[in-house]
Amino acid sequence: QVQLVESGGGLVRPGGSLRLSCQASGRPFNGYAMGWYRQAPGKEREFVGAIPWTGDNAVYGDSVKDRFTVTRDKAANTVDLQLSDLQPEDTAVYYCAAARGSVQAMSSLFQAGLGLWGKGTLVTVSS
Q1: DSSP letters for the chain
Q2: d(Cα 28, Cα 13) in Å, to the nearest integer?
Q3: How many CB atoms lie within 10 A of CB 51?
Q4: DSSP code of 41?
Q5: For residue 67, what pLDDT is reported?
Q6: What is the dihedral sign for C-alpha 114, 118, 122, 123?
Q7: What is the pLDDT of residue 7?
Q8: pLDDT under 50 in the chain at which residues?
């Protein structure tokens, strides 16, 4: 069974940090870009960041650039998201995502139903 399983969500105070992890399993993920999206209550799903199979040149959404970092371990089939300087507007369910292709093609691949999603992990930023 192919699956992506997220962990590490929780409650954090503004200005704090958190690390999310995603374990991929069930098939080889060679050639897959992997990353993270998020969805806040009442809003559409938003691209957070993703990293190509090569593990370099991660790409980030404008709202998280310079605060969040995506890394991956190809041997372990994991992709992590380090969240720093968290703000209340970062409150959302964070989803791990994987698609065979480039980071730039991920959104198109998901729209075509060709990507994989985890079930999500909730991050709440509140004092």
Answers
A1: --EEEEE--EEE-TT--EEEEEEEESS--TTEEEEEEEE-TTS--EEEEEE-TTS-S-EE-TTTTTTEEEEEETTTTEEEEEE-S--GGG-EEEEEEEEES-STTHHHHHHTT--EE---EEEEE--
A2: 37
A3: 23
A4: T
A5: 97
A6: negative
A7: 97
A8: none
Q: Report helix, strand or coil for 90.
A: helix
Q: Residue 108 in 3-state DSSP? A: helix
Q: Are 78 and 29 in contact (CB under 8 A)?
A: no
Residue 89's pLDDT is 96
Judge whether 99 and 118 are in contact, CB under 8 Å. no
Looking at residue 89, its amino acid is: E
Cβ contacts of 13 within 8 Å, gap of 6 or more: 86, 125, 126, 127
- For tokens 């806040």, the residue is 40
